[in-house]
Amino acid sequence: MTLLPLAVIGLVLCIGLYVVFRRQRHGGLAGGSAILATPHRAASLGSDRVYSEQEVAQHNTAEDLWLIIKGKVYDLSPYIALHPGGEAMLRNAGRDSTKGFSGSQHPARVWDMIDEFYIGNVATLETSDKKAD
Ligand code: HEM
């Protein structure tokens, strides 16, 4: 009879230790970059979106930063704070940055890195505006 309280305390301690152990294994932050390891919200918008250059130009701040690279639009707002080139990216915000991005300061892997920030394409100029005769 006197052993019962001890058994209950032991059981509670075991459950507590088990819960703490599980949290440490599964609840911690994933290694590496949290942003690059997390699917970007833009990915859910799909790749079929088409943006005009004027629309892209409105996203030209550090909090809301879009770039055009080779006709594709990227929302780099989550990346600007991590960019080793810092503000260089901001100077091109909202514009075609193919030249800056293709510069020798960048290793080839940056082409893989931008994929997760892809949100759509730039509208190509209409060819249907020629006069109908
Ligand atoms: C207009 C666009 C961009 C410009 C002008 C630019 C400019 C630069 C510059 C000047 C550096 C050299 C920093 C230094 O070593 O002191 C740099 C480094 C870097 N940038 Fe950019 N960047 C642009 C966009 C991007 C984007 C979109 C990404 C990735 C999503 C990126 C990823 C990197 C990485 C990884 C480095 C370090 C390269 C290395 O030394 O290994 N950049 N960038």
What distance lies between the first and last C-alpha atoms, to the nearest angstrom? 103 Å
Number of helices: 5
Overall shape: it is: elongated
Strand fraction: 5-15%
User: Can you tell me the CATH class of the domain at 34-122?
Assistant: Alpha Beta
Mean pLDDT score, rounded?
A: 77
Q: What is the radius of gyration computed over CA atoms, rounded to a whole number of angstroms? A: 25 Å
Secondary-structure element order, as H and E? HHEHEEHHE
User: Could you tell me the number of beta strands?
Assistant: 4
CATH architectural name of the domain at 34-122: Roll
- The CATH superfamily title of the domain at 34-122: Cytochrome b5-like heme/steroid binding domain
Helix-and-strand structural type: alpha+beta
With strands numbered from the N-terminus, the spatial order across the biggest sheet is 1-4-3-2
CATH topology of the domain at 34-122: Flavocytochrome B2, Chain A, domain 1
Q: What's the story with the biggest beta sheet?
A: 4 strands, mixed
| Structure ligands | protoporphyrin IX containing FE
List unreliable stretches of 5+ residues: 23-32, 37-45, 127-133
Helix content, binned percent: 25-40%
